[in-house]
Specification:
alpha/beta; 2 domains
């Protein structure tokens, strides 16, 4: 009779799900122990990451979000260096803000990173049937119309909102894509993160060997996600304005678009506090400049992409990754900013 008690059945189901989640965890621990070629530090980092994603992924989403905010609060107070970088960036980008306004944004940035952590750990619970309860489209027609042209789509995105959830949800809605990532330095953590990323049907392209695969994907009329909001080396980028400050930005997006005719469609995931949902917002395709001068066109088109991202960041400044040294690489002869 006890087995028919709704409360007991509910507890048994939760225990069963916990056991299922611990199976891959225990397998990964055995793989970890067998990785004799890796230093102890890498193994400890992996063990910590595996524990976090397992625990936050097993508990209910509400509890995971609450726990991640505690982590975010602690990280904010312990990470003086990251707070200093974020404050410096805000002084450069939004000089009109006073110290109190900057601190409020920085606190929001850490809260957003906590939300990102929780949503990432909860990814395996999402499917085509329940994704709409968490992520809704905003401006999907901008992506759909570009894809219908048949030349592929370059999904221009950024470290904005819960960015790992962005392509995951898009795939669950029936639009899997490939996206370019820089491998994480710890190969075990990299494998763990990528295992979560591809759970909805997406595929990862490593940045160092990406061009050929990107071109093949676009030729098939499919989509490729590329993030261009981080600093790059002078040899790999151009200095395009971002918040009126020259920012060394990768030329890959503009170059590939000009070469293939693929549309550049900006899209980010925005947390809507009122709805308590994420909005996957697609902006209209970027109108490309084509004057016949490749170098000038690359700079002009990269500048247009930066402008779109800047406009999005201005709308929700606490949801962008201000703790990154975006303006680290400087034009020849200019002083360092950090």
């Amino acid at each position: 009779m006890l087995s028919r008690n709704p409360c007991i059945l509910k507890c048994l189901r939760r225990l069963f799900r916990l056991g299922q989640s611990l199976i891959p965890w225990s397998l990964s621990i055995r793989q970890l122990a067998a990785s004799n070629h890796l230093p102890l530090r890498s193994k400890l980092e992996y063990f910590a990451a595996l524990t976090v994603v397992t625990v936050l992924g097993t508990i209910p989403r509400g509890a995971a979000l609450a726990a991640s905010q505690v982590v975010a609060w602690a990280t904010f107070h312990c990470s003086k260096r990251l707070r200093r970088i974020a404050d410096r960036n805000l002084k450069l980008a939004l000089p009109e803000l006073d110290a109190a306004a900057r601190e409020q944004i920085v606190r929001g940035v850490f809260a957003n990173l906590g939300r990102l952590l929780a949503e990432f750990c909860q990814l395996p619970k999402l499917n085509a049937q329940n994704v709409s309860g968490l992520v809704i489209y905003d401006g999907y027609e901008n992506f759909g119309n570009a894809l219908a042209l048949g030349k592929g789509v370059l999904f221009l995105t950024a470290h904005y909102g819960a960015w790992e959830l962005c392509p995951y949800a898009h795939a669950l809605y029936g639009h899997p894509l490939k996206f370019v990532v820089r491998p994480i330095d710890n190969p075990l953590v990299d494998q763990l993160v990528n295992r979560y990323r591809i759970g909805s049907g997406n595929q990862v392209i490593e940045k160092r060997n990406s061009l050929k695969e990107i071109l093949v994907t676009l030729k098939r009329g499919e989509a490729v996600g590329i993030l261009i909001d981080q600093n790059t080396f002078r040899e790999a980028g151009v200095f395009a304005p971002f918040f009126r400050v020259p920012a060394c930005t990768t030329t890959s997006l503009a170059t590939i678009a000009m070469r293939t005719g693929a549309a550049i469609v900006p899209g980010v995931l925005i947390w809507d506090e009122h709805l308590r949902k994420h909005r996957l917002r697609f902006e209209p395709a970027v109108s490309l400049v084509e004057t016949g001068n490749p170098q000038e066109d690359i700079l002009a088109n990269t500048t247009r992409c930066n402008q779109v991202l800047e406009d999005l960041v201005r709308k929700h400044p606490d949801q962008w990754f201000w703790v990154h040294r975006r303006w680290k690489t400087r034009p020849e002869g200019e002083p360092e900013l950090y």
